[in-house]
Structure formats: C-alpha cells, structure tokens
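Quick note —
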Amino acid sequence: MSDYAKHVGILGLPIDNMTLDETVSKIFDLCNDYLIDGRPRLIATVNVDFLVNLHSAKNYKVRHPELMAILRQADVITPDGMPLIWFSQLLGKPLQQRVTGADLVPQIAVEAARLKKSIFFLGGDGDVARRAATTLQNHNPELLVAGFSSPFVHIEGEYLADEFKRDDEVVEMINFTKPDILLIAFGNPKQEIWYWRNRHRLKVPVSIGIGGTFNFVTGAISRAPVWAQKSGLEWLYRITQDPARLWRRYFYGLVKLFFFVTPILPQVLSLRKKGKKVSGAVGRTRLRFGQDKVTIMLPSQVNGEVVASVTNDTDSVETGHLEFDFRDVESIDIAALGEFLVLRRNKLLENCAVTARNIKPGIRRILTAHRSLDLFDMNYLLSGSTDDTENNEAAMSENNEDFKLESRDSVSVLTFFDRLDALRISKFDVRDMQDKLKNKDIIIDLTWVRFVDSSAIGFLVKIKRIARKTGNKVVICGIKDMVLQVFRMTRMELVFELAETLEEADELLRITT
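Predicted structure written out below.
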C-alpha cells in the first residue's frame, strides 16, 4: 500500500484507495468500531452516475448539494466504475482496483458468515431483496439474514412531508432485527438520501449503498466476462443487454464526464511539459498556534503525505479552527485533495472549521477545476457564500435557538438558523408549532440557514399544510443559492412563494391577501 495514495480526490469526493479485500476488512472493522462509539457508518460505491448527479456541466456549481454533503461525510467511498480508475491514472495517482457493489456484496456475505455477522437486505424491485438474501445464503449456509424489505421511497415532491412517517415501519423493522450490516439498494441518490434522513434513528453499525447489486446477485442481470470487467468494457456489455434504456444513460454520462475532466487536462500537460512531478513534496508544514485557531503553513508542492501529516500534528491540539496558508504553494495533487477532504470530514465530526487564505490565482484555478475550492470555505457547500458568516454566528449566539417565532399583527414570522436537516427537524414538535401558527399568514425566514436537505423541504410542506387548513398563505424569504438548489432538486421551488427579503415577503402577503 505504500506505493499508493491512501485517498484520491476525484471531482470533489475522497475516493478510498483500497483493494476489494481491504474494503471488506475495513467494513468489518467499522462494525467493531460501532460497539465502541455507537456511531453508524455509511459506505458509498461511487460511479460515473454519481458524478453526473453531483455536478453541473455548464459551470463549476454543485448540482445536487444534498448528495454532495452526504457523500463527503461517508466513511468509505469505493471507485465503482472504470472511468474513475482511468482518471486517477491520468493524474498520476492510480487507484488500485475497481470495487463494485456486485463484487463487494458476495465477499461481504462470505466474511459475515465466517464472523457470525447478520445482514439486512433493503430495496430493489418486487421480491428481489428476498431472492438476493436466499441466493447468498445458499452459497453461504451459515450466513445470518436479519431480514429483507422493498419499500417505495420518495425523495422529491410533496410526498416528502409524509416520508418520515412512512419510514417508521421500515426503520423499526431494521432496528428490531439488529443487523450488523444494512445493504441499501434504492439506487443513487435515493439510497444515500434515505439513509441520511434516518441515520439518527437507525441502530446499524454499517450501511452500504449498493444500487442494483441485488439483480446481479440473483442473476437477473448477468455480469460481463472477466476480461471485459478488467479492461473497462463492462459498460459496453451492459448496453448490449438493454440497449433501449442504457445507451442514452452511458452516452450522457461519458459526455458529461468529458466536460468535467477537460479543464483539468491543461494542468496535467503543463506539469509534464515542465518535467515536474505533481507528487513531489518540497519542505514540511509549519504550524502557528493562536488563541482560537491553528494556522498551517503549506510547502511549495503539496501531496497526500503533506496533508496527512497535519492530522498527526493537530490530533492532540484542541481548537475549533484549522487555517491553511497557501502563500508558498505552487502545485497540489489529487492525493492531497483526497486527504484534505478526509481531514475536513473528520474535523466536521469534531465541530472544527477548516478554512484557507492566500490562495494564488493559479492554485485557485486548479482547485476550481477539481471541484474542490469549497473545501476551505466552511459555508460554501452550505450556503453558497461566506458574506453572511459573521452575522449568522451573531444571530445564532444571540438567540441560542434552532428557530425563533415572532407574531406581527396577522403574520407569524418563523426564522430558522444554521442547518435545517433531518436530525434538526426530528426535534421539532409539529403539533405545538401548529398551535402557534394557526389563523395567521406565515413568513418563513431562511436568511440565516446555511443548508437544507430534502427532509427539511418536507417539513416546510407540513407548515404550508397548517396554513392551508385555515386559508392562510406561506412565503419563504432569504434563500441562499445552494439552499434554492435543493428546492430545485426536490422539484419544490414552484410550490412555495419566494421573496428575497423579509420586507418583500411582507409586501407580497399584503398584495395577495
């Protein structure tokens, strides 16, 4: 493993550079970690479809902020797709092996049977989850099958308002059977979103998004010959099985990936022309300790080892802020980006901010092309800008609440702060809120909200229903670009009346009343 980077940053995601066997071993290590800290883990198997869903081809903006936030907090991301392998090779930091769900699940079943660990099979069409469980148990007689279920899941539209309730039965079933591993086969991005909105109440050590793997396990869809898998031509074999459906999907995915990769190629060619090695590290990091933050001075060339050393150097330091100084940086490779992503994920668990300063225009262009500039802006993915960071923190500290409710004549103003996601809204009492909001028009102020997920959109639909029962209206104001994009991805931006400011929302209500 010493010849390979531990993580590789590909278009804003930290891909774990492990073989199939190493990935299986890691999964069962995480099962054991759960016994110590009780924190559920998520494994994602990422292919080109994920990248197509995540990013916009027209600009460098995130197309699916909720999915991006989930994947960046996943504990392991495997490269399920040869284009990811080719991309890493092109950039000089090759991934060791393609690790697909279709290869991973049978190996997990073998190891689970040996270690007496149980598996719950969730998702798929019809009874494919049951048939997949039976097939794997036939091959591994000692495999413990905790259960199986194939519910229908919504991640968009007004159905979101009722999804928490619909999920209750499934979550209770899973928790009752106490599986060690949950295989989720809803497909991307549905499986990741379903897991994330229920993570705070799932009592499962490791959950793995596996897409259509149950169909491969049961033989409903056949795998390509081994030579085709190893040469990266499995996608061509898949097209021959279902050309009417798959050729558009693969063609669109590869074309869009080409647009993602093209801005990066000049940087690679330039470095090769100059005879530079992207992986070459010059010098070491230098740490400056302040009262409330640690500043890391980076060397001229930054690779994965340089960034990984920061974790070792700051593990014992209690701070709420790590600041990277890029003033001396001349080059940065994808191994460094991978380590930055992992460091940011780990620091997020510790409520520690990771930011940067003195990023030169050339390095900024590199980070932008790699869809990773936002790594050092703690609010970019959450809000779209940092202009309101200080005001946001002041508002949060002043109110020390998740939300504030004010009554203004015939209008109730409901102001939310920071994040509005599944974990946060699970703490709200809708019935109590209904009593406070009844018989008045409602303005929902999201000015101070940095991030929403699809569960939060469903919660806002519930508020709209409360108003609708009494003939009142709801206007939402102060939506940031990234938050608005979540509304678009859930097909809900046209369901609500939107205003830029509180004053405009108030005026809109007066006009429509």
